[in-house]
């Protein structure tokens, strides 16, 4: 398995893997493939990595800029992240996350936030941070990780592609 940046000819495979991973997911409205397309079209897909095995895309993770109000620059949101259902539980998602965070850190990103299951993301260093708020989300599911700067404080907004307002 290799982790590499997306290429133009990966786009439909990324959509298919994402749709399959989120099909029937209790917290999904199945718009995740569309979110990735909107991020790409809006120039907000800052980092898009695929996991490839035997020439096939088996996983994908997207990172996009988030705004922190009143003021913190260089923060990103992780997601959507997907691993093809028959390939889950083998470390593919972890490899995508670790590589993505390494690349963000290497590019000087201040930090990363996400909405997800705390039990999964804690092992990468993500924590609930009371000083950083994401209105509309139960606080235990909103998590942050400082990469090259101190933890930010304020209110986070994801790219409009997420349709979260
Ligand atoms: C979440 C997802 C990307 C993880 O990818 P993965 O390749 O299956 O994960 P990994 O193999 O790297 O990690 C598996 C480990 O995480 C644990 N894990 C997986 N999902 C978890 C969850 N929701 N909560 C807690 N632990 C979880 C597994 O028990 C396993 O633990 P272990 O390593 O101690 O055995 C993948 O399961 C997926 O595509 N799910 C459907 C889409 C989704 O939910 N995306 C995230 C939305 S927040």
UniProtKB/TrEMBL annotation:
Molecular function per GO: acyltransferase activity, transferring groups other than amino-acyl groups
Record keyword Transmembrane helix present: no
InterPro entries referenced in this protein's UniProt entry, alphabetically: Acyl_CoA_acyltransferase (IPR016181), GNAT_dom (IPR000182), MshD_Acetyltransferase (IPR050276)
Pfam families noted in UniProt: Acetyltransf_1 (PF00583)
Keywords: Transferase
PANTHER family according to UniProt: L-AMINO ACID N-ACETYLTRANSFERASE, UPF0039 PROTEIN SLL0451
Protein name (record): GCN5 family acetyltransferase
Organism: Sinorhizobium alkalisoli
